[in-house]
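pls design
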């Protein structure tokens, strides 16, 4: 019975979510602080979008205009996200740092080398939150394409009780979105050199995160007083 319910929910929930989310997010007002960055990356052949896990609900909606491939957890729960991504026009690669990681990375490299954009959750499927994992750097090094950090904040939102405090913007809220500086990662780096790139990118993404939330009048999304709708 449990498997039957799971299969039924997989058939219904992703389609329902995509339909409702398009209507929901259409009410929001989007401000992009630095749109020239994404225009230049796309003109140069695309890149690797890296974002924090808390932001994935709106990121999928925003990035569907730039078709590409996304890495999604290989777990049963990840199947819902994979189907949502497919309905939004993304190809999917299943894996994480804890499961099928090396194989998934090789698949991503092949897609990006063929000219597709990639979307990667910077802090992975299990965290810790806003601590960068090295997979996106390895993808950039092996594919030759730049990493483009992307962060957003919302003036009114719901922060769920998950490990990352996943954020859902409320209808009619203002969403402030920033792109970071494109980062090229040379191939053949030593472990110490790769760690330097990791720290640099993590700090930039967290600075973008702080700046985005300041723009909507917040310190961050996961304070104790921000765990419910604000």
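designed seq:
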């Amino acid at each position: 019975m449990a498997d039957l319910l799971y299969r039924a929910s997989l058939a219904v929930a992703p389609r329902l979510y995509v339909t409702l989310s398009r209507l929901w997010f259409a009410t929001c007002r989007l401000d992009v602080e630095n749109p020239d960055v994404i225009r230049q990356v796309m003109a140069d052949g695309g890149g690797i979008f890296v974002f924090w896990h808390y932001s994935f609900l709106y990121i999928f909606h925003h990035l569907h205009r730039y078709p590409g491939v996304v890495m999604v957890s290989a777990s049963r729960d990840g199947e819902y996200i994979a189907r949502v991504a497919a309905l939004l026009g993304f190809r999917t690669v299943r894996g994480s740092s804890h499961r099928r990681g090396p194989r998934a990375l090789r698949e991503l490299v092949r897609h990006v080398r063929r000219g597709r954009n990639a979307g990667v959750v910077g802090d992975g499927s299990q965290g810790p939150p806003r601590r960068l994992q090295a997979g996106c750097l390895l993808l950039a090094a092996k594919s030759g394409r730049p990493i483009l950090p992307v962060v957003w904040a919302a003036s009114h939102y719901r922060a769920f009780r998950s490990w990352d405090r996943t954020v859902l913007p409320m209808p009619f809220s203002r969403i402030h979105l920033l792109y970071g500086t494109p980062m090229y990662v040379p191939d053949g780096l030593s472990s110490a050199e790769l760690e330097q790139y990791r720290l640099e990118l993590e700090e930039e993404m967290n600075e973008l995160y702080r700046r985005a939330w300041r723009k909507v009048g917040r310190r961050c999304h996961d304070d104790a007083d921000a765990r419910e709708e604000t």
